[in-house]
């Protein structure tokens, strides 16, 4: 049985929307997509729908080949986002991504304010280039990453009495994923005119924006990156207990995602923090090892469920 049928998705236009979300996931989010394969078939399409929504909005903002101005991108993002949010409130959509998202939101009663927060952060990317403190950055990463974890919790499954704690853990893990990406992508973000490392933390480590723009790793920049990496690992560690609150059939997926996404910082260390000349990436061997171990756990959990 295919995933859509297993999930009870039978209407042709809706299946087409979910298929498009899956295509975006498999094309642009390979680690994320690999992790979704560890979920039972009937859960995967709904995770793809969340990814499809997030990726489509992100593409509007960060398409470097686009000839649109910042104001034009902001207008396109607002128009599309407002339409999808209106569709969510109305319970139906004709948008090729919105159909799947609306269906997923209704099935799992996911709060609409998560999607509003995400779109607000995407809009910030068009106008905010630097963040003065981690508190200021947190406002951005809540919408760009934490809400993704929060949206996932109802799909993954959690007991009602543990929902609050699971949500807190999901928020921390989502932020950890985002911060790990920021560490890896400092150079790429500079090319987009953005610095996601808080300004007061740069100053505390003797690093200026000009030093980052020079794209030469200095001892000060290494210390700054070590500080950022420690924060990622702390958040990952604090989120670990929340994974155990999820439906047993979902745990292997999130455990694998945690190791692979947060593992980016391990790879930064392996390249001696040379983030401007090397792109830190999880090795194929590590992906295979993590996925294989998680697959065994996933099969066992399904057998026991």
CATH homology group of the largest domain: Farnesyl Diphosphate Synthase
Q: End-to-end span in angstroms?
A: 19 Å
Query: How many structurally independent domains?
Result: 2
Proportion of beta-strand residues: under 5%
* Succession of helices and strands: HHHHHHHHHHHHHHHH
Account of the protein in words:
The protein is mainly α. The chain has 2 domains: 12-127, Farnesyl Diphosphate Synthase (Orthogonal Bundle), CATH 1.10.600.10; 159-305, Farnesyl Diphosphate Synthase (Orthogonal Bundle). The chain contains 16 helices and no strands. The chain has helices at 3-6, 12-28, 30-36, 44-62, 70-90, 98-108, 113-124, 134-156, 163-184, 186-191, 199-204, 209-214, 219-243, 251-262, 264-270, 284-304. Helix 2 crosses helix 3, helix 7 runs antiparallel to helix 8 and helix 9 runs antiparallel to helix 13 (219-243). The two termini are 19 Å apart. The model has no long low-confidence stretch (mean pLDDT 94).
Key terms for this structure?
305 residues, mainly alpha, Farnesyl Diphosphate Synthase, 2 domains, 16 helices, 0% strand, globular
Write the layout of secondary structure elements.
Layout: H1 3-6, H2 12-28, H3 30-36, H4 44-62, H5 70-90, H6 98-108, H7 113-124, H8 134-156, H9 163-184, H10 186-191, H11 199-204, H12 209-214, H13 219-243, H14 251-262, H15 264-270, H16 284-304
Helix pairs in contact: 2-3, 2-4, 2-6, 3-14, 4-6, 4-7, 5-7, 7-8, 8-9, 9-13, 13-14, 14-16
């Amino acid at each position: 049985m295919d995933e859509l049928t297993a999930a009870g998705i039978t209407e042709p236009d809706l299946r087409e929307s979910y298929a498009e979300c899956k295509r975006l996931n498999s094309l642009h989010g390979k680690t994320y997509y690999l992790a979704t394969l560890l979920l039972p078939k009937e859960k995967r399409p709904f995770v793809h729908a969340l990814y499809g929504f997030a990726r489509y909005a992100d593409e509007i903002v960060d398409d470097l080949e686009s000839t649109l101005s910042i104001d034009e991108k902001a207008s396109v993002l607002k128009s599309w986002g407002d339409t999808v949010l209106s569709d969510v409130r109305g319970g139906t959509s004709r948008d090729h991504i919105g159909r799947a998202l609306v269906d997923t939101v209704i099935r799992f009663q996911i709060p609409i304010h998560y999607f509003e927060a995400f779109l607000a952060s995407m809009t910030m990317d068009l106008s905010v280039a630097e963040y003065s403190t981690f508190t200021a950055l947190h406002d951005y990463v809540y919408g760009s990453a934490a809400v993704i974890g929060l949206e996932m919790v109802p799909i993954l499954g959690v007991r009602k009495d543990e929902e609050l704690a699971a949500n807190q853990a999901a928020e921390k893990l989502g932020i950890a994923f985002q911060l790990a990406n920021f560490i890896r992508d400092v150079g790429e973000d500079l090319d987009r005119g953005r610095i996601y490392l808080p300004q007061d933390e740069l100053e505390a480590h003797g690093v200026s924006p000009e030093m980052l723009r020079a794209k030469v790793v200095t001892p000060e920049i290494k210390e700054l990156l070590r500080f950022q990496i420690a924060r990622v690992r702390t958040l990952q560690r604090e989120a670990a207990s929340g994974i155990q609150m999820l439906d047993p059939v979902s745990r292997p997926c999130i455990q694998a995602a945690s190791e692979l996404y947060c593992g980016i910082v391990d790879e930064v260390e392996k390249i001696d923090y040379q983030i401007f000349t090397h792109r830190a990436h999880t090795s194929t061997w590590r992906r295979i090892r993590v996925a294989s171990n998680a697959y065994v756990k996933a099969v066992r959990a399904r057998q026991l469920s």
